[in-house]
Design brief:
The chain has 406 residues and is an alpha+beta fold. The protein folds into three domains: 94 residues, Lipocalin, CATH 2.40.128; 93 residues, Quinohemoprotein amine dehydrogenase alpha subunit, domain 2 (Lipocalin, Beta Barrel), CATH 2.40.128.120; 173 residues, Glutaredoxin (3-Layer(aba) Sandwich). Helices cover 18% and strands 44% of the residues. It has five helices and 25 strands. The strands form four sheets. A nine-stranded antiparallel β-sheet has the order 4-3-2-1-9-8-7-6-5. Strands 10-11-12-14-15-16-17-18 form an eight-stranded antiparallel β-barrel. Strands 23-22-21-24-25 form a five-stranded mixed β-sheet. Strand 21, helix 2 and strand 22 form a beta-alpha-beta unit. The protein starts with a helix and ends with a helix.
């Protein structure tokens, strides 16, 4: 009788573990040159249902759309028309990362194994200090150079941070330091980035590598510079001529036509968000704007999103944008421009009063008089730390100024 009791208890414990189990994985998007892009996954099973969480530093991307059939697993990644197509094996999963892009479909091999260690560097010696702000110079394959601001936060062997450009940031990077070397990576469904570098005795960074997607590669160096800043105005749109009023009309996700000249927007401050459902920086900006709008619309502030998508198919565009809108509880309208993000004439076709769109996302601030008051390019998201706080302060100051003007 006592044996049966213990057997029942053991069965209950095993059954409960099978219903409510958590497993940590180390995932690798593999490149042929060995610059593999690593990220972490937390898997939770509850009553036979899956939930995955992709982890990059403090970011958590929750995934609920997971379908299993036999040893096959299909993971629909949020927002970006991307999937992980996997097979179960003894140590985890193996398969490919698939995503749609403006130029075609892209596939990369993925290996996912049990474990919680993000990066492993087989080096010895005391870990050098990469902490702080750096002036990085990136060297493109065609010989062009660009100045980029790097912010790193290091605790022991763990390092996180991001890179900022006039058109946005590289979002949440996380990695490892070992001796004089460091690696950082991120994966959010559409972007897969690897950064590696060495710190010299003289305090400079060299032998830097930036790998993106299947084959793209840049090199970089850096000097420590606590005063380094980024001038977003170099990428901002401007008024093309003397006309300061915009005049557009596009359908929302339910095909209702909405125009900037509608009565709803007269006498109000309006923020025009230039965005796309494929754009991770737009995701960060939408999270901010959605919350701001809910808290401040009573002050006479409106927001309109203008979406430039990968497809001219309205059903596909509205489906992707609806997922985006639902995720961030967006209450302001998102309009489908019907123009591709890659179209070189997208600005002329949609906002002819403005100079060309250089950055996704971008913003246009319209005063209560209906005239363009200011523009802003890019978005310094939460991964940028102090830069994000500065942006939020400047955004509120601009809104307050426009609300107080006649």
């Amino acid at each position: 009788m006592l044996l049966k009791k213990y057997q029942l208890i053991l069965f209950f414990v095993l059954f409960t573990e099978s219903l409510f189990a958590q497993q940590h994985y180390r995932a690798e998007v593999r490149r042929n040159d060995g610059y593999h892009i690593v990220f972490k996954i937390e898997e939770n099973r509850s009553a036979g249902k899956f939930q995955w969480t992709i982890i990059n530093d403090t970011e958590r991307i929750h995934i609920n759309e997971i379908r299993q059939s036999g040893d096959s697993l299909l993971v629909d990644l949020p927002f970006f028309e991307a999937q992980l197509k996997l097979k179960v094996n003894q140590v985890g999963y193996q398969g490919e990362w698939y995503k749609k892009t403006a130029t075609g479909d892209q596939f990369m091999p993925v290996v996912i194994t049990k474990g919680n260690e993000r990066n492993v560097l087989n080096l010895t010696g005391n870990n050098k200090d990469f902490n702080g702000r750096w002036r990085a110079t990136f060297h493109k394959p065609d010989g062009r150079q660009s100045q980029i601001l790097a912010e790193f936060r290091q605790k022991g062997k763990n390092i996180s941070g991001t890179f900022l450009t006039p058109t946005g940031d590289y979002r949440f990077l996380e990695g490892t330091v070992s001796g004089d070397s460091m690696v950082l990576s991120t994966f959010d469904g559409t972007h897969a980035f690897f950064f590696g570098a060495h710190l010299n005795e003289n305090g400079t960074i060299d032998r830097g590598v930036f790998a993106s997607g299947p084959v793209y590669l840049e090199t970089w160096t850096a000097l420590k510079d606590s005063q380094m800043t980024i001038d977003e105005s170099t990428a901002a749109m401007q008024l093309r001529g003397d006309v300061r009023n915009l005049d557009f009309q596009f359908p929302d996700l339910d095909s209702n036509l909405i125009a900037i000249t509608d009565d709803k927007y007269k006498g109000k401050v309006v923020v025009i968000q230039i965005m796309g459902s494929w754009c991770p920086n737009c995701m960060d900006e939408t999270a901010f704007l959605s919350e701001y709008y809910r808290l401040n619309k009573h002050r006479g502030v409106e927001v309109i999103g203008l979406a430039y998508e990968y497809s001219l198919d309205f059903a596909r565009a509205s489906r992707n944008l609806r997922r985006f809108k639902d995720k961030f509880n967006v209450e302001y309208p998102m309009l489908i421009t019907g123009v591709l993000s890659s179209d070189t004439l997208k600005t002329e076709k949609t906002l002819p009063q403005m100079t060309p769109i250089k950055a996704f996302p971008s913003m246009i601030f319209i005063g209560k008089d209906g005239k363009v008051a200011k523009t802003h390019a890019g978005y310094s998201g939460p991964a940028t730390g102090v830069h994000h706080e500065i942006f939020k302060k400047e955004f509120e100051e601009e809104i307050k100024l426009l609300l107080e003007s006649n």
